[in-house]
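Regression report. Comparing outputs from two consecutive submissions.

Submission 1:
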Amino acid sequence: MSQEAMSELAREEIKQEAVRRAEERARIARWDLDVAVFLFVVLIIVLILLFQGFGIGIVAPVALFGLVMVWIVGWRRGRQLYRSFYDEELFRLEREKKEAEEQEKRERKVEKTIAETIEETVQRALRERWK
């Protein structure tokens, strides 16, 4: 497999991991305090309407409207958070990959230097022995 193909494969894996992490974070953060407060306001309005003697024909649409609004707000918030988290995770994963590659290059350079040093030491010892 060519270096370019491997790089493209690694890039796709990074994107998939970023998608997974972003979806998870967005799903968790979707129901924030604002949505919870709005849901409690709808519940309070429904309770007030029931205690004031309004019929189910009026209370049910109000409750349904409130639940639909909570769902829409949560869904929109989740989409916004997903995009933000996706960009963040993609940047983080690419940076981690780049750091890992740099670390690997440094390790190879050290190994090469050690190998060269060992080789030079052995050659010097052989030269001294032959003298």
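Submission 2:
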Amino acid sequence: MTTQTHDTPAVMADAVIAQVIQLKDPDEAISSAIWWRVAELLRACTTATASGPHLTTTLLEHAFTATDDVLSSLSADSDPSTTDPTTTDPSTTDPNAAYASTAPSGLDALAAARRSCLLLARLLFSLDRTTPAMLATRVNQLRRALTAWRFETLDARISTVH
């Protein structure tokens, strides 16, 4: 009976994600397989940012692997002939782009990683079209935030050892 209790939230989450992906515009350049990879990336990042210090490094590596998976799938799936050159710059089409690129001073790396996850989740759950360039930009922003957080976490560990 405990197994059923632990599986239910994951099954429900998958059902919600499946519904959101089905509601996306069928003419969107990003395939549903890539959106599933984005969902896995968001799970990995959420788990890593909510983990205890003893699991952070392992979970961060999983998040980096998921990030690389999305980016490689996106580049393999992109058809240059379907790219609209007027929408390749996310700052011209995304109202959150300016906010995402300018982090307020004093914002720590963990908060930046969480904010990057949120901005990526907004693309996943949005019913507006998302260009491959915009998705790649968001994933790269998340990767940079995770990298900064990893260095901050490693620095904290090294300073406590010495």
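Expected: both submissions complete independently.
Actual: both completed, but the second showed a warning that disappeared on reload.
Relevant detail on submission 2: Residues 2-161 form one domain.
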